[in-house]
Design goal:
heterotrimer, A alpha/beta, B alpha+beta, C alpha+beta, A: alpha/beta, Rossmann fold, six-stranded mixed β-sheet, five-stranded parallel β-sheet, 16 helices, B: alpha+beta, 60s Ribosomal Protein L30, Chain: A, Phosphoribosyl-aminoimidazole Synthetase, Chain A, domain 2, seven-stranded mixed β-sheet, four-stranded mixed β-sheet, PurM-like_C_sf (chain B), Hydrogenase expression/formation protein HypE (chain B), PurM-like_N (chain B)
């Protein structure tokens, strides 16, 4: 790292070390932040009276078990090829995970990008190919691009099963649990910073952060410094090399064309109105739920699991009676243990030391 | 001889002997390999190390090797890591009907070449043919015998606080090579497998260090899995300097794209070595003399704290934990 | 929520960019970004270039702290 970078990091560390102000609760909403924070050992630099809470920004964790049940149903009852980000393969459904379905003969194909799922459909015209479309604002455009390509190619055997979500309503829903947010850098790269700037008008504070150790530590210092300076709500973009005010206009247009907001169930949190994205009616042919008349599954929440409170920052993973006992990364019970970036998984893997 | 392996080649008749002779025996030729039912071997000079390993890999051929080379290296390296000189191997093949004989010859060539380099004789073998679709190309099982060096006593239970942790080269190359060779994720990178027979390198470690505590070859789970195993078996903590772990830039790039950790990608030609700190420099210097050890480095040390854990020093100078291995490697977006 | 990888744009054709991350190359969609040129750095997520990268993280750290 350059000398000027080192100096900036040193200054940021000094701010954190010398903080003597009021008790602060800071939530990083993005699961990749949760992991980057553990990996960088950032918690050891945080002042004693500043608490870092991990929020609901892991798309895998907040995707309800019903969604996995739907995917397994498509694979086993409709003999569809399920193409998916690798993250979802091990997530437990009510009966089984996709890995479980695969071991019983279902075709589960991990892909790097939804575009590859479309290519798969092109080269396997005799099979129905379904892409599991999870993710937030960062990932949703890639699913829309996939639909656009399938549409252009006139594909009849490609569809997506949506569980896409947006963050803005979640910021509002959780605002009373925290003093300030560390906003997700790559969500903001797409949507821009207008919304998060406007949230200050609703009393919501936060900074956009990147993912490298120096980006995390400077964002944390900015946050602590601005909190201590005044009680006024604030916003600061600490990831300006990637995040702009406008974000990607093309991405927003694309998503607007193919999708519309809908109420969505967040595993652990319940329904948040208008926090989901589904395909518009005119693209029903690409909507797996409509195309295959997928029945509705109603998965039950596992008894004892406190994931909902953990996602809201109301308790820590270690407060949950199942944590590390019946609920482990090998045999996850709750949402926050299933993904590598889930709060409980991160605590389990890194716990004790950090 | 036919161009493809057929079921009749596994029938035990004339075609079977023809396949065995033309493809295998003539390449593996040595004093102990006969047409009798078992090899008769001279008694060893010391205790013997004895192990077996099965090999399946798809694709069967990849940059830097093939399943034949792999099947020799795997068993030779396991024996070497017990401080034993590999002497004899047996090999058993299960071949899919329709597998090209030319490819089988390529595999046998690699086995012969690698065995010669490792100083082992292939003294017994078996060939079976399975129906189309019952196996994927060819599966190989090798079993080996080695003679232990006098005084050598490496064991996964022997790591002690104060030991230096050394890796003999950059990590994750084999796993990355196979991932790329499968072509599933559309990524291009110039990465070759580290697959190599390591007895030469392992024996040189014993030459310069009387008291090698742990010697392991990192395979499927990569170096990270070995570190966790040793921390558990020896009941010690391992402090890893994350920035000292050698990783080829292209491997790091592939891992970045797919969200994978290079420490958990497979290696097939890397030793993980625990020796008393004062011997570390000499061991690294010796490793660097080997064609497979130019990137050898001390990557950490053993501590009495945090038994069972692998703790990493971060870029910020803080501590974090290397998460335990997570099973199947899947690309992730989050 | 979103793993991103910085990569350098090698070439662009038909809305797809060939990107290089320290020797790992892949085609990614460049459709979400206007005015992308070879030599630019982009943040890649799920096979899509989601943003242009305009600086390295060290000088970004300096400017972020400078603003405080």
């Amino acid at each position: 790292m350059t000398e000027e970078g080192k100096q900036a990091v040193a200054k940021a560390r000094a701010i954190l070390e010398n903080y003597k102000g009021k008790k602060l609760r800071i939530m990083e909403v993005c699961g990749t932040h949760t992991h980057a924070i553990f990996k960088a050992g950032l918690r050891q630099l945080m002042p004693e009276n500043v608490e870092l809470i991990s929020g609901p920004g892991c798309p895998v964790c907040v995707t309800p078990a019903d969604f996995i049940d739907e995917a397994v149903w498509l694979a086993t009852e409709k003999n569809a090829v399920i193409t998916t980000f690798g993250d979802l393969v091990r997530v437990p459904g009510s009966e089984m995970s996709l890995a479980g379905a695969r071991s019983e003969g279902a075709d589960i194909v991990p892909v790097y990008t939804p575009i590859d799922a479309v290519e798969y459909a092109k080269t396997h015209p005799d099979r129905e190919v379904v892409f599991l479309s999870v993710g937030f604002e960062t990932t949703t455009p890639s699913a829309c691009l996939a639909v656009q390509r399938a549409e252009k190619a006139g594909l009849k055997n490609f569809s997506i099963l949506t569980a896409n979500k947006t963050m803005d309503e979640a910021y509002r829903a959780l605002k009373d649990s925290v003093d300030a947010y560390i906003y997700p850098g790559h969500v903001c790269a797409i949507v821009g910073t207008r919304l998060t700037e406007e949230l200050t008008g609703e009393g919501i504070s936060g900074v956009v952060a990147g993912f490298t150790p120096s980006e995390l530590v400077t964002a944390a210092a900015t946050l602590v410094e601005l909190c201590s300076k005044s009680d006024e709500p604030f916003f600061r973009n600490c990831y300006p090399r990637v995040v702009t005010r406008d974000g990607s206009t093309a991405a927003k247009k694309l998503v607007e064309k193919y999708m519309e907001p809908a109420d969505a169930v967040w595993r652990g949190l319940g329904i948040i109105p208008k926090s989901g994205m589904v395909l518009r009616d005119e693209y029903a042919a690409f909507d797996a739920r409509k195309k295959f008349s997928v029945p509705s599954f109603k998965a039950k929440n596992p008894p004892g699991c406190r994931c909902g409170e953990i996602l809201q920052g109301k308790c820590k993973p270690t407060d949950c009676p199942l944590f590390g006992k019946t609920c482990t990364p090998e045999h996850p019970v709750g949402a926050c243990m299933v993904s590598q970036e889930g709060t409980c998984a991160a605590y389990y893997q890194y716990g004790g030391v950090v | 001889m036919e161009e493809k392996v057929m079921l009749v080649h596994g029938g035990g008749g004339k075609q079977t002997s023809e396949l065995i002779h033309e493809v295998f025996a003539k390449r593996f030729r040595n004093l102990y390999l006969t047409e009798d039912d078992a090899a008769i071997l001279p008694p060893p000079a010391s205790n013997i190390a004895f192990t077996t390993d099965g090999f399946i890999v798809s694709p069967w051929k990849f940059p830097g090797g093939n399943i034949g080379k792999l099947s020799i290296c795997g068993t030779v390296n396991d024996i070497s890591c017990m401080g034993a000189r590999p002497k004899y191997l047996s090999c058993a093949f299960v071949i899919e009907e329709g597998f090209p004989v030319k490819s089988l010859e390529e595999i046998a060539d690699a086995m012969a070449l690698t065995a010669r380099e490792a100083g082992v004789s292939i003294v017994a073998g078996d060939t079976k043919v399975a129906g189309h679709g019952q196996v994927d190309g060819v599966f190989i099982t090798t079993t080996g015998i080695g003679e232990r060096l006098p005084g050598a006593h490496p064991s996964g239970k022997s790591a002690r606080p104060g030991d230096a942790v050394i890796v003999s080269g950059d990590v994750g190359r084999h796993g990355c090579t196979i991932l790329l060779a499968r072509g599933e994720y559309g990524i291009d990178a110039e990465v070759t497998s580290d697959c190599a027979p390591l007895w030469g390198m392992a024996s040189s470690v014993f030459d310069v260090c009387r008291d090698v505590h742990v010697l392991r070859d990192a395979t499927r789970g990569g170096v990270g899995t070995v570190l966790h195993e040793i921390a558990g078996q020896s009941g010690v903590g391992i402090r890893l300097d994350a920035s000292a772990v050698p990783v080829d830039p292209a491997v790091a790039g592939v891992c970045g794209m797919l969200g994978l950790e290079p420490l958990y990608l497979a290696c097939e030609g890397r030793l993980v070595i625990f020796v008393p700190k004062e011997d570390a420099e000499a061991v690294v210097a010796e490793l660097k003399k080997s064609p497979y050890g130019e990137n050898a480095a001390v990557i950490g040390e053993v501590t009495p704290d945090e038994p069972g854990r692998v703790v990493m020093t971060t870029e910020l100078g803080t501590q974090t934990v290397l998460p335990p291995p997570g099973g199947e490697l899947l690309p992730r977006i989050c | 929520m979103c793993v991103g990888l910085p990569a350098k744009v090698v070439s662009i054709k038909d809305g797809m960019a060939l990107v290089d991350a320290s020797g790992a190359k892949r085609e990614v969609s460049a459709e979400l970004l206007d005015e992308l040129d070879p030599g630019d750095y982009v943040m890649v997520h799920a096979g899509i270039a989601i943003a242009k990268i305009t600086d390295d993280d060290a000088s970004e750290a300096a400017s972020v702290m400078g603003e405080l």
